[in-house]
Write a structure and sequence with these properties.
The chain is α+β, with helices and mostly antiparallel strands. It has helices at about 5, 10-20, 25-30, 50-60; strands at about 10, 40, 45-50.
Length: about 80
């Protein structure tokens, strides 16, 4: 991600794509009040800067960190 990308406004679908999460997961996080405060809104649509979402993703519980398996590869069962 380049510095210009950090300030790209993202809706739920685009933020999910950036973070490797489905739109349905992002919607459920939104309904549960688990997302960061939006950086802006246009009408009823809220948006976040890419930087806001990547920082939130790095600090949220359950986010893969360090040497944890990636969400795309999944974790091995039974370990």
């Amino acid at each position: 991600m380049t510095p210009e990308d950090d300030l790209t406004p993202l809706d739920l679908r685009a933020a999910g794509a950036l973070l490797g999460l489905t739109y349905e997961t992002m919607r459920s996080y939104s309904k549960a009040g688990m997302l960061p405060k939006p950086d802006g809104a246009m009408g009823r649509s809220r948006w976040w800067y890419a930087k806001t979402m990547t920082e939130w993703d790095a600090s949220r519980p359950g986010s893969p960190v360090g040497n944890a398996p990636s969400r795309k590869g999944g974790a091995s069962k039974g370990k």
